[in-house]
Amino acid sequence: METTPKPVPPDAPPIRGKIIEAEIKSSVDATRPLPLVCGLYAIEAAEGIWLCAYYGTNRSIFEFLPQKGAVVEEAQLGIVFPVKEFTPRDQYQPALWEEFKRTRMLAYTGHGG
């Protein structure tokens, strides 16, 4: 049975849980003044698994992005997840995480585009 995570309405309550998967990448482009960091997270919460993405160019927080194993409260993180998708715990599969990474990881192309 294949499951597709559901986008979350903007007024959903903040996410609280433990990061069970994390992928953080930084990319640079000579035509842009700042690097781009993409942080992808699978967060296990009481209600299920949240797949979240952070994108930013603020160098002051790069070293403070949460890592795998951290317990987080979205309201206290100091970053915003523009992408949040929810999957019930019994429907979460590693393939969902792999697909989320494949479709949500952003990086500069190196050509200013």
How much helicity do the residues have? 10-25%
Overall shape? globular
Main beta-sheet strand count, sense and barrel state: 6 strands, antiparallel
The secondary structure category is alpha+beta
The largest beta-sheet arranges its strands as: 1-6-4-3-2-5
Beta-strand content bin: 35-45%
Report the uncertain regions: none
Question: Could you report the average pLDDT, rounded to the nearest whole number?
Answer: 86
The number of domains: 1
Order of helices and strands: EEEEHEHEH
State the end-to-end CA separation.
38 Å
Number of E-state strands: 6
Instruction: From the alpha carbons, calculate the radius of gyration and give it in angstroms.
Output: 14 Å
Question: So how many helices?
Answer: 3
Q: What do these coordinates show?
A:
There is one protein chain. By secondary structure, the chain is of the alpha+beta class. The protein has one domain. It is 17% helix and 36% strand. The chain has helices at 59-62, 74-77, 94-104; strands spanning 6-7, 16-27, 36-45, 48-56, 71-73, 83-87. The chain has a 6-stranded antiparallel sheet. It is globular. It starts with 5 loop residues before the first strand and ends in a 9-residue tail after the last helix. The model has no long low-confidence stretch (mean pLDDT 86).
